[in-house]
Amino acid sequence: MLKGKVALITGATRGIGKAIALKFAENGADIALNYRRDNEDLKNLVRELECKGVKVLPVQGDVAILEDANRIVKETVEGLGKLDILVNNAGITKDGLIIRMKEEDFDSVINTNLKGTFNTVKAATSIMMKQRSGKIINISSVVGLVGNAGQSNYSASKAGIIGLTKSIARELGGRGINVNAIAPGFIQTDMTEVLPDKLKESMETSIPLKKLGNPEDVANLALFLGSNLSDYITGQVIAVDGGMTMN
Ligand code: NDP
């Protein structure tokens, strides 16, 4: 489905980003794998991806820093020849009730999740505009749609990503660039591993499909949005949440 395509995935060393990298590689895309810190997990993932017969380029950088984002995109194009699909996946949480939330916890979540997305989109846009094609997939969250007590910083960043997605979808549609957002619900990764078991159990019973999601559930939608199957879809926010937020 993605043979001949080049995809850049931010924050790709674990969780949802890793699942997307594997799914894209299984479908033939060459992968630029953004990471912050070199470690054994990264080396193992690179080997795993290379076994699928595609080119893999690890690109170090912090998406919250504009110069890093510019360099990440530049190294991708220099190393793999072009950029067809950008997946803005890197994200962090720093939860707390608003009354106790520190300014730096608000700023760092906004800077990584929202500004990080802006940074890489800005860096990738000129390349995709020249190509007159591209797919941008931004990972938002259901809490960007419905909010969540204790996550005002994170919800604001994820709601911001939805506004950003819709605006740039309008700006870039005429250039053959599709921009969509995925809103995952409760997906089992390191990010949600830290939550109390009681909360996970109560989530499970309240979700219409009666189970938590896996990173691969999100990767399946990313594959569709990264492929030509989604050519007439832009500016959409699609939930992968077991029915949690259905209207
Ligand atoms: P993880 O915490 O498992 O992984 C996050 C990844 O992002 C890590 O690879 C991390 O790198 C990377 N990262 C964080 N900050 C930066 C940065 N500034 N620059 C580059 N990379 C960075 O999270 P998930 O896989 O669960 O989440 C992936 C995305 O999905 C996030 O945007 C998250 O908000 C979103 N999401 C997740 C949900 C869930 O239930 N899990 C639900 C809804 C949305 P490092 O290893 O260096 O920390």
Fold and architecture overview:
The protein has 247 residues and is of the alpha/beta class. The protein has one domain (6-240): Rossmann fold. 48% of the residues lie in helices and 15% in strands. The chain has helices spanning 15-26, 40-50, 66-80, 103-131, 143-146, 152-172, 190-193, 197-206, 215-226, and strands at residues 6-9, 30-35, 56-60, 85-88, 134-139, 177-184, 237-240. Helix 1 (15-26) packs across helix 9 (215-226). It starts with 5 loop residues before the first strand and ends in a 7-residue tail after the last strand. The mean pLDDT is 97.
Query: What is the succession of H and E elements?
Result: EHEHEHEHEHHEHHHE
Summed over residues and divided by their number, the pLDDT gives a mean of 97
Radius of gyration, in Å, reads 17 Å
Hetero ligands: NADPH dihydro-nicotinamide-adenine-dinucleotide phosphate
CATH architecture: 3-Layer(aba) Sandwich
Distance between the termini: 32 Å
User: What share of the residues lie within helices?
Assistant: 40-55%
Envelope shape: globular
How many domain modules?
Answer: 1
Q: Would you identify the regions where 5 or more consecutive residues have pLDDT less than 50?
A: none
Question: What structural class should be given to the helix and strand makeup?
Answer: alpha/beta
Report on the biggest sheet: 7 strands, parallel
Number of DSSP E strands: 7
CATH superfamily: NAD(P)-binding Rossmann-like Domain
